[in-house]
Input
Amino acid sequence: MSAAEAWLLARAAGASFVLTLVLARLAPRVGWTDAPRGADAARKLQGRAVPAVGGLALLLVLLAGGELGASSDALWGAHLPGERARLLTLALVFTVGALDDRRPLAPGPKSLAQLVALAPLAIGNGNASLAWGLALVALGFLLVNVLNTFDNADGALALLAALGLAPVLPLASAAALGFLPLNLDAGRAANRASRAPSAYLGDAGAFLLALLVLYRPPALGLVVLPFLDLVRLTWVRWRAGSRPWLGDRRHLAHRCEARGLTRPVTALVLAALAAPAALGVPLACARGSALLGAAAVGLTLALFLAALRWAPDPLPCPGARASE
Output
């Protein structure tokens, strides 16, 4: 990396930090906050509304850097639509996330809105078959929900994105790093009473990161750990008589915290578990080695299973039947 490139990344991180600070001050005035409401209050431990503006800060940094519509030809990249369709999709998906941050949508309408927002991937995909377009919509829908579900603990998704995007989209990685201190400062004196950080990524931020992965397929490795955690949660909730989309505090991050790890340490542990796949898959794509990619994913799987044994589930599943 040249000195000029390093300076550019440092500026991106600094801009993300400053933008998050400014937006966090403005967010309460327009209601762009995440506050414990209704049934969610039982699993959201913060004592105040938290500005959900991290995603907007990342968006502005990437927009300034001209990286929003960028894509790669690896894996399915050659079947992506043109830049206009990609930018439109990203704008629509980000808007759905922002609306959900301000006023949470019910699961059904939220899923429908996500699919409509992803539709330009199929409609604008003039150089590929309709089957490929629909496959991209389905994959985008999966990525959006997997990463959004993983954004359940301070710093978890931001640090994972900074790690996994570093080999393929360094500007986004730097922006995530710049946001991270404000997502992990719940222990700061000013925030300690509320146990809440200065800012969240929000659904808009998680959705943005999912589209970046979709447009840069080698970054798919960063989704491996969130996907494993979601598959496990879906199975556990279904067996307990709950619904897979009902939130709780049974994620791996919550289990680590129940073992006594602080939020920053929990984020570091999750990043370490995800690192083999997050860094190995881009390397495997660069070398054209499927075996290397499979080994990287397998190592993250092994670490995930070991972490589950180390941090047993301390909580019953909400909605579980009495017989369970």
User: Anything to note?
Assistant: Strands lie at 33-34, 50-51. The CA atoms of residues 273 and 306 lie 10 Å apart.
